[in-house]
Amino acid sequence: MTSSFAEIPTLNLSWADDSARRPQLLAQLRHALVDVGFLYISHHGVPGVVVANLVNELPNLFALPDAEKERIALHNSAQFLGYSAADTEITAGQPDRREQVEFATEHHDSWTPDQPVYDRLRGPNQWPDAASAPGLRPAVEAYLDALTALGERFLELVAEALFLPTHALLSFLSDQHRLKLVHYPKVDVKDDTTGENRQGVGPHKDSSGWWTFLLQASPPPIGGLQALNRAGEWIDVPAVPGTFVVNIGQAFEVVTHGVCPATTHRVLAGADERFSVPFFQGVRRNLTKTEALGALQGHFQKHFPERFLESTDASSSVESAEGRQIDSPFLRGRYETWGESQLRTKVRSHRDVGARFYGNVFNQYTHD
User: What phi and psi, each to the nearest 5 degrees, are found at residue 76?
Assistant: First the structure.
């Protein structure tokens, strides 16, 4: 067992279908889960045409006229779905130099005031006019379907690697998964000695899902993604064609009692524009911290006693000092349900949306 990591491991998922190699794959996965929190997966089974169709839509999407982007702007959506311009999302207290369009598993807007406020996050997408981007909706929906299936298959391997029944982790999943199509504009890095203009997205742990599956959609050597190891060093996660980068979300760290850590990461903007597509595997909105902590507590205490944490307070983990400073409201117990924790994060990141649709909790979330 290592105390830190210097590179991100790559796992060949086709080994799962080879009885001779499956045990080796599970051992590699266990190491990635416990010691790294980040990994590449190759031979993942997502059809190349599904990936290519989505990647081909990205330049056209972000070249749409400003009026069309405004029509699908995120500030129109109580579900935080739609377009947001660069410098409008806040991470680690600073604006992110990226523009993005957010989509999710399609649902009708059926929320009523007698439901928990966080259930309002479940709802419809905003789509550009079909004449402006005719291939976008079918490409996004096919990709969402493929990544939903991949995520469930991957969780079965994760369960087996952690000595759990195959389907033990599926009950934590939501009926809605989220997808971001992201464009990092190029920035002038020549005279930027302080790095002030390079925050593509600031240091964070993923709070929008159970697991994240990231497609780095620009070819190498274009990069910028970095993961923070336990020695406090930023490790590059370069683009590798044919792979997804997979990392642990905050809720999974809670359920595993810190055995499987959510690794802090960031993106640095650079001299080349960059596209990426993160898929966030959704967590049940009504999952309480009590349920998350209790469901598998005995299992992880028995099988991983050297890593098991009685508390999910990040200060008692093996993270670096910088990693312990990352805002983790669900891990640190400020909110009882995952849904409220997620809503709070979104309101803080997109305060215009929070003020418009969630005025009854806006002040609380932005000042806690």
Answer: -90, -5
83 Cβ partners below 8 Å, 6+ apart?
69, 70, 72, 73, 74, 99, 100, 101, 126
Q: Residue type at 306?
A: E
The answer, yes or no, to whether residue 3 has pLDDT greater than 60, is no
What residues form DSSP beta bridges with 32?
none
**What residue spans define the domains of the chain?**
10-367
What would the pLDDT profile of 114-149 be if each residue is shown by its tens digit? 999 999 999 999 999 999 999 999 999 999 999 999
Torsion (CA) 325, 330, 333, 334 in degrees, nearest 10? 90
Q: Are 6 and 234 in contact (CB under 8 A)?
A: no
The answer to whether the beta carbons of residues 257 and 301 sit under 8 Å apart is yes
Instruction: Output the CATH code of domain 10-367.
Output: 2.60.120.330
Instruction: State the pTM of this model.
Output: 0.92
Six token digits for residue 290: 């009590």
In 10 A of CB 222, how many CB atoms? 18
Tokens of 277: 């597509």
Residue 296 has pLDDT above 90, yes or no: yes
Residue 117's contacts (CB-CB under 8 Å, 6 or more residues apart) are: 340, 343, 358, 360, 361
